[in-house]
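Can't attach files on this board, so I'm pasting raw text. These are the components:
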Amino acid sequence: QKEVEQNSGPLSVPEGAIASLNCTYSDRGSQSFFWYRQYSGKSPELIMSIYSNGDKEDGRFTAQLNKASQYVSLLIRDSQPSDSATYLCAVNVARSSASKIIFGSGTRLSIRP
Amino acid sequence: NAGVTQTPKFRILKIGQSMTLQCTQDMNHNYMYWYRQDPGMGLKLIYYSVGAGITDKGEVPNGYNVSRSTTEDFPLRLELAAPSQTSVYFCASSYSRDIDSDQPQHFGDGTRLSIL
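---
Top answer:
Structure tokens for the assembled complex are below.
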């Protein structure tokens, strides 16, 4: 089982609709969760971070975390063509004296006009 | 404030050559990471460091070496370049106070490496 799993997509959503991206992780001890957006040929940029169960909203973006079920999701409301990108889920994996961030393989999102 | 700086941006190597990818950060972050990203794929962790003098292997460390002599610098070395190492390499840094709490990573612009 991969440590962080995402559906690779592509996920096609009409402009103005809600895009829903999901991520599951295997390490029950994980405490830090991140969503990054990556445009083609560019480096990842942080969209959201979430550390506690529940929802966290920032503008059109909402991150949802459920540690009991080991999943984290990202909702994008009023989707725009500029939201078309690959979205990477990242989770910290704790090991003895240090932790490391592991990324999922990413979900490609396409917003159609 | 430059953030995370990677050099070079592009490089073409011949099989068997060696090179060092440079990464430096000016944010006084304790954690630094090296990832590779193959076309259409996610990021795979090569090596990471939790502080000067401390490094550890990630998911795909074979064929690479790292060192962390200062807080700012985290170079990645390829000793014997192979075609399978053709990829985009990203360096990242973050601040972490303890094992259970990580702050977001800041990424460099990447190094596009081709091995021919």
